[in-house]
Design a protein that fits this description.
transmembrane helix; NST/OST; glycoprotein; elongated; binds 3'-phosphate-adenosine-5'-phosphate sulfate; 605 residues; three-stranded antiparallel sheet; alpha/beta
């Protein structure tokens, strides 16, 4: 612009004193900052006036342009910019007062475009002298920015806002997709757990795995508080559109358990796990994995075990429960080998009540096993059907061998169930504990049925279902059948002793199962403190269900009670037998109290 003006001044071939004067004026203008009021402001005002006139009377300026050159005022308005640049043209017109405007030459009016922006079109001739070969119809776009720095700031803010908006949208999209995938995965796992539970229905493991695995199944899509389930997670099955390495979304993965509910069977292990699962920091394995107590699982290795665990977020605690861990001698050392600082939860109940509960479940399982067996036998296929005969059965009718296997595996007692060999399958198979040897001896001495042969499934089941608790727990001579598995499991001190040989006492918390039934929140508060998580499970998470006679759980999406296999009605047991057993257990209970350092106040009569 300045150079153009200079050129305009120096290249004029008809230099006159007026021109020189005009040139001097231009040079003075060049030396002045444009934003300052100009000394020849009158000329500018005149120019501005001319411009306004041009806009209103497009042909008028041709007759009056020679009068321009006086005026005053100044400012930063873009039009002033235009005026400054149009000055050379005015000079030219003043130099040739009689020269008419070339019809092909662009005028201010021709090049003026009315826009909401401060954008002006100027004739090219306004920028430099018109040469003989210059096109007079050219226009030059002049964009006036009155406050350049403000404009830069404005643009920068705009760009940053755009970037942040995109970032937030992108992150939230990624978060939602991943949360949906987590829900989907949870849903898939719960379906798988339900399917495996129903596949095993009719028989339960020694610790009631199949029954408890589907308990609360419908509630298993519980999510940590910071992940809101989306309504139709199943629809989101596509992979993420963008790789999320840049987004620090809390990812889930399967982790080995940091806490175990090791037992005791029939003391409320399932209720405890489900109640803990109300806590957003807790993740649970759906069913009982039996990794440490079953050799066939343990030999598969820790990676197999880890894959059985649920997805969890970092900071969550994964818990698995397999009640038979407590009574399996090899388990403590195996658990320590995996994680020496793992936290152990042991829930106990008054031993005689627990034994009766155990008996109730076994009898229930036996009864469900007898029905199809009896139907098979009455149909004439014999007690030990061949595999092909079994295969020929309708799909709903399990084969005898399968039923028998289920019966044994689920109860974990083998023949000892029927009345005898107290230490149970696991303990007799491995080295016998002191109590186990004592029990076996007592059982034999008392004339207990130390069955070593395998009875037919029907006979075994029928015996189980037919015998009363009194018959199984007390020999005819009045002595206690210590070898009866429901009783031997209730000798807590024997089993706990093994654990405390491997783990320090402070790594194990004893939960009072009777109190958990009556007042879950107080027990859960202790457990939360033990696990080092904040107190989150409150009374509003529970309501007492009169029909069931137990507390049930309140979830965001509805209320849930444990299945009917939890809280079965116990058979009436002769009070004399109950007293006898309580006296029997009094000594063992004292030993247990000593081990745990707490008197649980169980009745001794
Ligand atoms: N809230 C609630 N609802 C239902 N049942 C409850 C609850 N809290 C504790 N319990 C008691 O849990 C007993 C079953 O214990 P487990 O879950 O350890 O059984 S198992 O070993 O897993 O089969 C079960 O024993 P039984 O009453 O003998 O069936 C219940 O007494």
């Amino acid at each position: 612009m300045t150079a153009a003006k200079r050129r305009a001044g120096s290249s004029s071939s008809t230099s006159t004193s007026n021109e020189q004067q005009s040139l001097q004026q231009q040079q003075q203008q060049q030396q002045q900052p444009q934003h300052l009021p100009r000394q020849d402001g009158d000329s500018q005002a005149q120019g501005h006036h001319e411009y306004q006139q041009l806009l209103q009377h497009p042909h008028h300026h041709h007759h009056h342009h020679q009068h321009y050159g006086v005026g005053g005022g100044g400012g930063n308005h873009p039009q002033q910019y235009h005026q400054q640049h149009s000055h050379p043209q005015q000079q030219q017109q003043q130099q040739h007062p009689h020269q008419h405007t070339n019809p092909h030459q662009a005028t201010l009016r021709d090049c003026s475009v009315k826009l909401p922006l401060d954008i002006l079109w100027l004739p090219k001739s306004a920028m430099r002298p018109v040469g003989p070969d210059a096109s007079h119809t050219d226009c030059i776009l002049v964009v006036g920015v009155s406050r350049p720095k403000l404009a830069v700031v404005f643009l920068t803010v705009m760009l940053i806002s755009l970037f942040l908006t995109f970032h937030v949208l992108y992150d939230s999209a990624v978060y939602n997709i991943q949360a949906a995938q987590a829900v989907h995965e949870r849903h898939r796992l719960s379906l798988a757990a339900s399917a495996s539970a129903s596949a095993l229905s009719g028989s339960s493991s020694a610790s009631g795995a199949s029954f408890s695995s589907s308990a609360f199944a419908s509630s298993s899509n519980h999510l940590p508080a910071f992940v809101k389930p989306v309504p139709s997670a199943n629809q989101i099955s596509h992979p993420m559109v963008f790789p999320s390495s840049r987004v620090h979304f809390p990812k889930t993965s399967r982790r080995l358990p940091q806490a175990l509910i090791i037992g005791v069977r029939k003391c409320g292990t399932r209720a405890l796990l489900e109640m803990l699962y109300l806590h957003p920091r807790i993740q649970k394995a759906g069913g009982e994995v039996h990794f440490f107590d079953r050799d066939e699982n343990y030999l598969k290795g820790l990676e197999w075990y880890r894959k059985k665990m649920p997805h969890s977020f970092r900071g969550q605690i994964t818990i698995e429960k397999s009640p038979s861990y407590f009574v399996s001698p090899e388990v403590p050392e195996r658990v320590r080998a995996m994680n020496a600082s793992i936290k152990l939860l042991l829930i106990v109940r008054e031993p005689v009540t627990r034994a009766i509960s155990d008996y109730t479940q076994l009898r229930s399982h036996a009864a469900t096993a007898i029905l199809p067996l009896a139907e098979r036998e009455s149909s004439g296929s014999g007690a030990f059907a061949s595999a092909s005969a079994a295969a020929a059965q309708p799909p709903k009718m399990p084969s005898q061998s399968l039923l028998y296997a289920k019966l044994q595996a689920a109860h974990g007692y083998d023949n000892a169930l029927v009345g005898g060999s107290g230490a149970g399958a696991k303990e007799t198979k491995t080295k016998l504990s002191v109590a186990g040897r004592r029990q076996a001896g007592a059982g034999a001495a008392a004339g207990g049925t130390m069955t070593t042969t395998t009875p037919s499934p029907l006979a075994s089941a029928a015996q189980m279902a037919a015998k009363s608790f009194e018959e199984l727990a007390i020999f005819p001579n009045g002595t206690v059948n210590e070898a009866y598995r429901p009783l031997s499991i209730s000798m807590y001190h024997v089993h706990l002793h093994r654990w405390l040989e491997v783990f320090p006492r402070e790594q194990l918390l004893v939960v009072n199962g009777d109190r958990l039934i009556e007042d879950p929140v107080s027990q859960l508060r202790r457990i939360e403190a033990f696990l080092g998580i904040e107190h989150r499970v409150k009374s509003e998470h529970f309501y007492f269900n009169e029909t069931k006679g137990f507390y049930c759980l309140r979830y965001d999406n509805g209320d849930r009670c444990l299945r009917e296999t939890k809280g079965r009605k116990h058979p009436h047991v002769d009070p004399v037998v109950v007293s006898r057993l309580r006296r029997f257990f009094a000594e063992y209970n004292q030993r247990f109290y000593e081990l745990v350092g707490e008197d649980l106040g169980w009745p001794e009569e």
